[in-house]
Amino acid sequence: MPNTANLSQGKKKHSMKKRSQTIFLICMLTVPFLQWLIFWLYVNLSSIVLAFQDPRTGALTFENFRLFWEGLTLPYGEIKIAVRNTLIYFAASVVIMMPLSFIIAYFFYKRIRGYKAFRIIFYLPAIVNAVAMVAAYTNFIDPKGPLGAIVKFFGGQMDPEGLLAKPGTATWTIVLYTIWTGFGANMLLFGGAMTRIPVDLLESARLDGIGAWKELTSIILPLVWSTVTTVIIVTLTGIFSASGPILLFGGGAQNETTTIAYWIFAQVYGSGNVGGSGSYNLVSCAGLCFTAVGVPVILGIRKLLERIPTVEY
Predict the structure, then answer these.
(1) Taking burial as the number of CB atoms within 10 A of a residue's CB, which of 1, 82, 137, 253 is the most buried?
(2) Under 8 Å between Cβ of 224 and 197
(3) Left if phi > 0, otherwise alpha if psi is -120 to 50, otherwise beta: which for 122?
(4) How far apart are CA 214 and CA 178, in angstroms?
(5) Residue 264 within any structural domain of the chain
(6) Alpha carbons 120 and 116: distance in angstroms, whole number
(7) Of the candidates 285, 280, 249, 250, which has an alpha carbon nearest to the alpha carbon of residue 265?
(8) Is residue 64 domain-resident?
(9) Number of domains comprising the chain
(10) Which positions ≥6 away from 298 have C-beta within 8 Å?
């Protein structure tokens, strides 16, 4: 009997403990669940509904899609220019910034002479305030600034209007700025992945006569491929939101430097050329269209990347 009573009391305590844990988990999950309902589900469902509504009457219509298509297909449509510039920024991120970040991280990993100083130089643009960096960059490329003096020293002459004042050079000038300031995050990720590589593996390869380039492409890259894949997929998720600090450089409509992110800002706050002030319906339509294009592309590329085998170590 005493043993039975003790067993019953133990089961009761265990049941009460489990019930307390369940109540605690429910209380802890309630806040993030409500946040998800309000700030994700409700917002996204509202955006989908807004895409099919007339901004004046609220009636269901495809007028927003017509306006979006016109802005995307007209020769000088603002949406077309925004998409073009956004894809330029995205291509610069994938084709230039990511490989260079990987190579620079490799040199830091190999501890080249002066690597500590170079690490500060490359990380500094990501640490300093963006307003200060844009101001410094703008002053440097000014025709009366250091760049103008350098060009003049070699017998050239810069346009008095400056690089940011001409549609043909403004976007590429800002792209160069994003490349200059965009190495920090990827270098940290790649560098952290490289530090996990066993040292004896690289020493063995060095004894076999493996050079730096062969070591980088045949040993380092396969061993950190999982990190590279993650960075590529994360970058792909921002394919239609890639942008430079357009607003800090003075806006994007005048010199054709607008991007999708800046176009959305301009439409919502009333300075856009299409739709007018607070045109949430047109912006929601654009977001729906970009999502319909971007999701299959991201999932397809992710599937292709997953086919490449990952090296375990």
Answers:
(1) 82
(2) yes
(3) alpha
(4) 30
(5) yes
(6) 6
(7) 280
(8) no
(9) 1
(10) 233, 236, 237, 239
In a domain, 157, yes or no: yes
* SS3 of residue 53 by DSSP: strand
- The three-class DSSP label of residue 268 is helix
Tens of pLDDT, residue by residue, the chain (313 residues):
455 666 566 666 767 778 888 888 888 889 889 988 888 888 888 888 888 988 888 788 898 999 899 889 888 888 999 999 999 999 999 999 999 999 999 998 888 888 888 888 888 888 888 889 999 999 999 888 898 899 888 888 888 888 888 888 889 999 999 998 888 888 888 988 898 888 888 888 888 888 888 888 888 998 999 899 999 998 988 888 888 888 888 776 667 888 998 888 888 876 544 444 568 888 999 999 998 999 999 999 989 988 887 776 6
Could you tell me which residues are beta bridge partners of residue 191?
Answer: none
- Residue 128 backbone zone (phi > 0: left; psi -120 to 50: alpha; other: beta): beta
C-alpha distances out from residue 50 to 138, 174, 267, Å: 39, 33, 14
In angstroms, what is the C-alpha Rg of the chain?
27
Q: What are phi and psi of 295, to 5 degrees?
A: -60, -50
| Phi-psi category of residue 245: left, alpha or beta, with phi > 0 → left and psi -120 to 50 → alpha | beta
Instruction: Give Cβ neighbours of residue 241 (< 8 Å, ≥ 6 apart).
Output: 86, 260, 261
Q: Which domain does 196 fall in, by range?
A: 74-306
**Which parts of 37-77 fold into alpha helices (H)?**
43-51, 63-73
Tell me how far apart the alpha carbons of residues 162 and 142 are, in angstroms, rounded to a whole number: 6
Q: pLDDT of 242-300, one tens digit each?
A: 888 888 887 766 678 889 988 888 888 765 444 445 688 889 999 999 989 999 999 99
Which CATH number goes with the domain that contains 120? 1.10.3720.10
